[in-house]
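Service request form, structural biology core

Requester: graduate student, group of Dr. S.
Request type: structure prediction, single chain
Budget code: on file
Notes: please return the result as structure tokens.

Sequence provided:
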Amino acid sequence: MPRIAGVNIPREKQIDIALNRIYGIGLSLSRKILAQAGIEPSRRASKLTSDEISKLREIIEKKYTIEGELRRRKMMNIKRLKDIGSWRGIRHVKGLPARGQTTRTNSRTVRGNVRKTVGSGRKLPPAPK
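Core staff response, request fulfilled:
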């Protein structure tokens, strides 16, 4: 199993899909990386040579922010919003949607307002003793 950026890449998948396992790399970015490396996107990950894997690893680690660093940057951005007390930061603190979604009917589970569905209203007879 090839290992790139600390993530095991699945062997049975095509390499453009397999690179999506790395946090911060989507389909379009994986195809862009493969074009830079000169690797055909439809090849299976198990068919890559060690030179190709090292070339992929080098391109990804030098040019792109991925995995731990990207997660850390994302968390720092959210922390900054909370510290300055912006609207989005307050919504993050409260655990509510931060991008303008309606909360009257949706996001019940986020708000803690879970409504149970009501049955027919008929109670079951007591169990025989």
